[in-house]
Amino acid sequence: MALMITDECINCDVCEPECPNHAISMGEEYYQIEPSKCTECVGHFDEPQCAMLCPVACIPVNPAHVETRETLMQKYVRLTQTAA
């Protein structure tokens, strides 16, 4: 499952630097998460850092990108191999 940032985002800049996969960037109006890079921090942390730190709790699971923990781990491996 990739996460998503809703329009309740207040652009506080807390989430972007905490994303180990660099999946978060500023969109036209508020931050957004690139689903192909989001592993919900699987492989890096026990919990998604962006959702843990978000002061307005606007980072739910994206229903359009449901993935198993195994799939997220495979994505993590793929992303870290290409970054090396």
From TrEMBL:
Stored Pfam families: Fer4_7 (PF12838)
MF annotations from Gene Ontology: 4 iron, 4 sulfur cluster binding; metal ion binding
Keyword tags: 4Fe-4S, Electron transport, Iron, Iron-sulfur, Metal-binding, Transport
Boundaries of every 4Fe-4S ferredoxin-type domain copy: 1-29
Gene3D superfamilies: 3.30.70.20
GO cellular component: cytoplasm
Cofactor: [4Fe-4S] cluster
NCBIfam families in UniProt: di_4Fe-4S_YfhL
Protein name: Ferredoxin
Species this chain originates from: Roseateles aquatilis
